[in-house]
């Protein structure tokens, strides 16, 4: 069963920061990023395949920690995993 995490960022710098965090802390996940289309109204984001549901809380902790203060805007996430659906915030 596929564990699909989608993360939506408001700018490219936030996207790069979240990707860096994921790569450093969850090296086994597969990340596919996208640029906004159209640029003026879309979001920067990523799909994260094979994201283990038990790591959701660690990712939320990061987004709510002082470490994430470098992010300029709010980050939104949706996780669909083994029939469970979670959203942040």
Structure description:
- The protein is α+β, with helices and mostly antiparallel strands.
- It has helices spanning 12-25, 56-63; strands at residues 4-9, 30-34, 44-49, 76-81, 84-88.
- A 5-stranded antiparallel β-sheet has the order 2-3-1-4-5.
- The longest helix is centred in the first third of the chain and has 14 residues, at 12-25.
Brief account:
By secondary structure, the protein is an alpha+beta fold.
Features:
alpha+beta; 5-stranded antiparallel sheet; 5 strands; 25% helix
Strand % is 25-35%
| Annotation, overall tally of beta strands | 5
Helix content: 10-25%
Radius of gyration: 12 Å
Strand order within the widest beta sheet: 2-3-1-4-5
Largest sheet: 5 strands, antiparallel
Order of helices and strands: EHEEHEE
Kindly name the structural category.
alpha+beta
- Count of helix runs: 2
End-to-end Cα distance, whole Å, is: 25 Å
Query: Can you tell me the overall shape?
Result: globular
Low-confidence stretches: none
pLDDT averaged residue by residue: 86
Please describe the topology of this protein.
Elements: E1 4-9, H1 12-25, E2 30-34, E3 44-49, H2 56-63, E4 76-81, E5 84-88
Antiparallel strand pairs: 1-3, 1-4, 2-3, 4-5
């Amino acid at each position: 069963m596929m564990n699909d995490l989608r993360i939506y960022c408001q700018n490219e710098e936030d996207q790069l920061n979240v990707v860096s965090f994921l790569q450093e802390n969850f090296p086994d996940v597969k990340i596919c990023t996208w640029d906004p289309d159209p640029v003026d109204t879309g979001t920067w984001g990523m799909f994260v395949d094979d994201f283990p549901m038990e790591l959701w809380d660690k990712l939320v902790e990061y987004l709510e920690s002082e470490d994430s203060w470098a992010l300029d805007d709010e980050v939104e996430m949706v996780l669909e995993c083994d029939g469970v659906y979670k959203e942040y915030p």
